[in-house]
Predict the 3D structure of the following.
Amino acid sequence: MTWAGSIFDTAGSPAERIARLAWFLIIVSAVTYLLVLAATGIAMRRARVRRTQGELADTRPETGKRLTRNVAIATTLTTLILLVYVSATALTGKAIAWPLNAQQPLTIEVTGHQWWWQFRYRDSLPSNWLTTSNELHIPVGRPVRVILLSNDVIHSFWIPELHGKQDLIPGHRNTMWIKADRPGVWKARCAEFCGHQHAKMAFDVVAESPAQFAQWYVRQLASALPPTDSSAKHGYDVFVQRTCIMCHSINGTEAGSNVGPELTHIASRPSLAAGSLPNTRVNLTRWILNPQLIKPGVRMPPNALSPADMTALLDYLETLK
Amino acid sequence: MPAEHAVDTDPNSPASLHARLERVWRNGPGLWGWLTSVNHKSIALRSIITAFTFFGIAGVEAALMRVQLARPENSFIGPDLYNQLFTTHGSAMMFLFAVPMVQSVALYFVPIMIGTRNVAFPRLNAFGYWTYLIGGVLLFSGLFTNTGPDQGWFSYVPLAGPGFSPGKRVDIWAQMITFTEIAAIVAAIEVIVTVFKQRAPGMSLNRVPLFVWAMVVMSFMVLVAMPYVATASAMLAMDRLIATQFFNYTEGGDALLWQHLFWFFGHPEVYIIFIPGLGMVSAIVATFSRRPVFGYTAVVLSLVAIGFLSFGLWVHHMFATPLPQTGQTFFTAASAMIAIPTGVTIFCWIATIWSGRPRFDTPMLYVVGFIALFTIGGLTGLLLASVPVDLQITDTDFLPGHIHYVLLGGMVFPLFGALHYWFPKVTGRMMSERLGKVSFWLLFIGVNVTFFPQLLLGIAGMPRRVYTYLADTGWGGLNLTSSIGAGLIAVGIVVLVINIARSLAAGAAAGADPWGGETLEWAISSPAPDYNFAYIPIVHGRSALWADTGDLDAVAGLREDRREVLQTTMLDAVPDSRHEHPDPTIVPLLTALAVGVGLIWGILDPIGFDVGAVLTFIALAAWGWPQKTKPNTHEIVEVPK
């Protein structure tokens, strides 16, 4: 079964192994459940027969012996099933915890913020380090070491198609390994309650061929181009003279704050507000005017921009491809 | 009997004995009598009603949440209120409903089932109730003034810490925990001492009813587990109020420390709630199968084993934190191990029904419902305890689905069975079988329609504790189904309440023993008199009322002009001494109020703790003030052969 977005819609080895174990346990559980229900049902039927025949409860020693034997058999069976269960768990656990034959792994530091995601791609060359927000690209077939960090509260990193979740805990460094075996575009969500907008703390995951990934990486690494047309130029002025610059950074400009998501290539992203809105001009307008209507409690304040300033700002942001 | 105590004309007639005992044991008149009561049944009953009220409020909260989630991007409730709702729902159900409820049922029936007149430490019992009430009122006052806790019922730091939860919301949560833990710990002490020291002569430990065993195991678990959460919540409160930094990693504290402390309590908590359910099921199965529960020793040992093992599983709530794989697998194995004793108890009940001659009245239906629902809870628990699978489904909607199967199946269904079973004993009237069956089926179907979709939603990737979800997730249909199920549950509860109200007003008279029960509570009239037993019975077997035909043997020699109870030895229940119980007093209420002043004022200003401490000291001094000594005699208790 490949239920889109579910834990069975697997695209990578750990998720695949977990799905197999989950199916196994679901089937074992279902059979066990039916056995328990059947035993209860038969017991009730026998009792009804005894009742209609006016017999009393059967407390004869020989019945007691038989019942003792049956309870012992059921208990032994339970124990055996549990032994298989623990063994299967341990084997799968070992398989997914081990680095996935890590040849030239890619290392990505993930930092959870209330309520957005920051990804920092490491490279042997410091100038090639790349920081993006709310959009994670990974190359198909290459193991990825994910380092999970948080500076505010606990979040949890979860791409169901690739692996189970791991928590981002302030003061602790958590690590996991993922690998996409096929290309795909998925939505990942924060899985640990982290305050007001836990519900709207998602990110887009794109698994693509190594060549496409390399292209994307180079594009993202590039600084933002200076605006050319007059409206976008005015929009840039709005960005750096109004509140935007207090929190956001755009590489290649004087905007360098680290409080909110960086916006160097905002126009290339599929969604806004940590995966809660499709990235369209209308949505971006709504978001900038009053984020509190879309994500109540979010750290970004409303911005009372004049229509002219807003148009210019949007024109500028749309150049950030 | 010394002559000066024989005030009635014929001191040996049963009627005059009842009248004398009634005069000594009854509560005082009016409101003052209500406030000063130290009778275990009065206090337990009001505690049961209080817990049921909190259950109702928390249930309404659940219904509101289901309305919000019925369709994607619904704007019925915003995140701020939603977070308060799910936090207070979980906290109230765990701390204000489940634990106080099972303890109250214990405090009501344990003394009767073991044949004594009151619970040990009656004033402590009253004090426990008042602290619990203050804690519960505090939590909901917070909610109704928009100061409801909003950090989740397990209050993970740093989210619950001073940096990310400013204001008083989390402080209210932490103090509510302290109140309810005080109440839970004193109740546990009372149950343990009552069972070990006040059993009727002849009720050696191997004859104690399974219900009582379950309550003893639960009480020991409370004694071990609750101090952890009380400590943790005090540390959290101190971090917030006086900057102690226990959980602040930037100052050398640790966020994971909270999780270990909390779950070392939190996992046993589930079993603290569920083991009494096993006790209630045992009582009902025996009575309605017309035979003692099969495998008494195996069931007792299983209960004890569950109690011990439940302390070794807490890490399975933390598999997504950085822990080595070998260590995690240990906790998977420990979690699997607990399924063995749990299985044994279920197999023993099935064997009891198998060889019995059961009547399927409403209480027994709830037992069958318990088996059908709880087993789903247990088996989905195996999925959650398996590290790799857990990493996928933990913190999704699978988890609320699972825990509601466990708690509704394992505790609420047995409790409702127990309600129908013991209602006649408490009120003297029978409940309607017809309405009972209607509400059973509504609840049974409602629980499945509500919570099975949540299991599926978790597999589909829906995180828990989200106030909304986008339409493109495709989760709308299952969520709507779940919300409809919640409606069925609500209707079921309404039918149940109607049944209670109608039966109270016009139910058929029950008589002492409407079901033909096995244990001692069915030997006394319904409703039970204030002194429970006019004659303390002597027990000759495991099934006190089924062992002999004819009248029970009884102990003579307890004084009837004072609240005297018989104490027996721990293992064999041989008469040991007589103990005089206190008369009604207002001091427990005053002490609880003094503690309340300290803990609640302390939220606003640390000076409140000091004031509360002084007031509590004064109240305790009044509590321990020497009473005017009544002349005491040291008669030997006579045990007729």
Chain A has a mean pLDDT of 93.
